[in-house]
Specification:
Elements lengths: L36 E2 L4 E3 L8 H16 L2 E5 L5 H15 L3 H4 L11 E4 L13 E8 L16 H26 L6 H6 L3 E9 L11 E4 L5 E6 L5 E4 L7 E3 L6 E5 L1 H6 L8 E4 L7 E9 L5 E2 L16 E2 H51 L1
Parallel strand pairs: 1-10, 2-3
Antiparallel strand pairs: 3-11, 4-5, 5-6, 6-13, 7-12, 8-11, 8-13, 9-10, 9-12, 14-15
Helix pairs in contact: 1-4, 2-4
InterPro entries: DIOX_N, IPNS-like_FE2OG_OXY, IPNS-like_sf, Oxoglu/Fe-dep_dioxygenase_dom, Plant_2OG-oxidoreductases
Keywords: Flavonoid biosynthesis, Iron, Metal-binding, Oxidoreductase, Vitamin C
GO molecular function: 2-oxoglutarate-dependent dioxygenase activity; L-ascorbic acid binding; metal ion binding
Length: 373
């Protein structure tokens, strides 16, 4: 798709009705409002995390409990400088407020790694997400492609480099906690990741004309190790732990990061820690921003449980690389998308056939009336 054919959602947010390509099937539509908040997700202070002894052990216990119960929690007192958080929020708002032609200079279509994209749905999916993103790869440093990083606002590169560095440090601290929580050496998870990758995705969810029919980001689990999410105070992140039967909207907490455990972390723990099942909903009152920092293992890192407790079986048949794990996940998602597309087309065809039958019956009745008249 050429950049000229891409329409930023900000251009569609003032329309009275939602275009069909964003309308979800009934079963996939939001069940809970963006601002119907729950306090079920633990909010954990990391104060004392770098101290040895009781305080660190207490923080670790809370984190491990949250991973076992939800796979998602929020953290405060995390050590990330507030100025970087404020600057990331400012940069994000300024970028998405740019005219469409400025954002589309960084169009990500055509296989480019990094840049701007609308929706980011999988190729082959009928329904699209109601979001815009700008994304870039920040670690390993040697892999950075600054040509795919926005050059507006002007200080994007300097601020996001510093932000990425602080988030990498925070991610490494959390990996140590997860290692210790499994009774392993504190560097066990870091070693399993080899050289850690980091990908930053800045999400913008514009006001939506019919939010009850759409999703900002469809239901999913993250493929990587952990995700650190900075969200504004609007609300829209939702999670479930019962397979989607019930959903809760995560209460935004000023200055906090939401931590999601991903598939890789789920496998390393042999299923002990949940991979957070989540989605993002939208609303017609406010636009929403979030910055997701994905801490992923290197593509050639081995994916396999680090510990198999007595009485348990390995949840994987054999070790595979993270690249292979990711490929299988994407292929599965594509297959599901194809099946949904075929099912939807079948329903549409059946509906058209039924309408045709009714029209034939009506015409037959009219013809009979004319004969008998």
């Amino acid at each position: 798709m050429a950049p000229s054919e891409i329409i930023p959602l900000t251009s569609l947010s003032h329309e009275k009705s939602l275009r069909s390509k964003f309308i979800r099937d009934v079963d996939d539509r939001p069940k809970v409002a963006y601002n119907q908040f729950s306090d079920d997700i633990p909010v954990i202070s990391l104060a004392g995390i770098n101290e040895s002894g009781g305080k660190r052990e207490e923080v670790c216990r809370k984190i491990i409990s949250a991973c076992e119960e939800w796979g998602v929690f929020q953290i405060l007192d995390h050590g990330v400088d507030a100025k970087f958080v404020d600057n990331m929020n400012r940069l994000a708002r300024e970028f998405f407020a740019l005219p469409a032609h400025e954002k589309l200079r960084f169009d990500m279509s055509g296989g480019k790694k990094g840049g701007f994209i609308v929706s980011s749905h999988l190729q082959g999916e009928i329904v699209q997400d109601w979001r815009e993103i700008v994304t870039y790869f920040s670690y390993p440093i040697k892999a950075r492609d600054y040509s795919r990083w926005p050059d507006k606002p002007e200080d994007w590169r300097a601020v996001t480099e510093a932000y990425s560095e602080q988030l990498m440090g925070l991610g490494c601290i959390l990996l140590e906690v997860l290692s210790e929580g499994m009774g392993l050496e504190k560097d066990a998870w870091a070693k399993a990741c080899l050289e850690m990758d980091q990908k930053v995705v800045v999400n913008f969810y514009p006001k939506c004309p019919e939010p009850s029919l759409a999703l900002g980001l469809k239901r999913h689990t993250d493929p990587g190790t952990i995700t650190l999410l900075l969200q504004d105070q609007v609300g829209g992140l939702q999670t479930t732990r019962d397979g989607g039967k019930t959903w809760i909207t995560v209460q935004p907490v000023e200055g906090a990061f939401v931590v999601n455990l991903g598939d890789h972390g789920h496998y390393l723990s042999n299923g002990r820690f949940k991979n957070a099942d989540h989605q993002a909903v939208v609303n017609s009152n406010y636009s929403r921003l979030s910055v997701a920092t994905f801490q992923n293992p290197a593509p050639n890192a081995t994916v396999y449980p680090l510990e198999i407790r007595e009485g348990e079986k390995a949840m994987m048949d054999e070790p595979i690389t993270f690249a292979e794990m990711y490929k299988r996940k994407m292929n599965k998602d594509l297959e599901i998308a194809k099946l949904k597309k075929v099912a939807k087309e079948k329903l549409l065809l059946e509906d058209e056939l039924e309408k045709a039958k009714v029209e034939v019956q009506v015409k037959s009745c009219k013809d009979l009336e004319e004969i008998l008249a």
